[in-house]
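Exercise 7. Given the encoded structure of a 136-residue chain, write a plausible sequence.
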């Protein structure tokens, strides 16, 4: 019965996935990301800000978009499980390194090392590997 349920879900998924890809190609607001942890079910990631000339990276738990802004960069981090997102200004103190801060947390996206580093207010750091880069 589990197999039948998966097949039925896949039939419904294909039209939705096609619409999401078409919307992305037309510059509308969503892209489909298929994380390994979701066992074949794509996660809908919504672009929270217009992003022309930017890029996104995927980690096992999130998608982070970096978009050029008028006074620097915009960092948009979105949880793949849909639990939330953050929209912050970002600086780039080094080539391919982007830093954002929010309520004592520091988010460092380091493309050179292929890591997202999240530092908590108490100084503890968590690392996530970048699994792929998505260009807009």
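Solution.
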């Amino acid at each position: 019965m589990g197999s039948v349920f998966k097949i039925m879900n896949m039939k419904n998924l294909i039209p939705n996935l096609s619409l999401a890809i078409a919307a992305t190609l037309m510059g509308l607001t969503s892209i489909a990301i298929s994380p390994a942890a979701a066992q074949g079910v794509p996660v809908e990631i919504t672009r929270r800000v217009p992003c022309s000339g930017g890029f996104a990276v995927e980690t096992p738990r999130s998608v982070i978009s970096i978009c050029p802004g008028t006074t620097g960069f915009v960092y948009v981090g979105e949880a793949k499980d849909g639990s939330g997102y953050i929209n912050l200004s970002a600086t780039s103190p080094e080539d391919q390194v982007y830093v954002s801060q929010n309520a004592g947390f520091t988010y460092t996206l380091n493309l050179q090392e292929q890591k997202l580093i999240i530092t908590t207010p108490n100084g503890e750091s968590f690392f996530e590997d970048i699994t792929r880069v998505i260009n807009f």
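Remark. The chain is about 20% helix and 45% strand. Students should compare their own answers with the one above.
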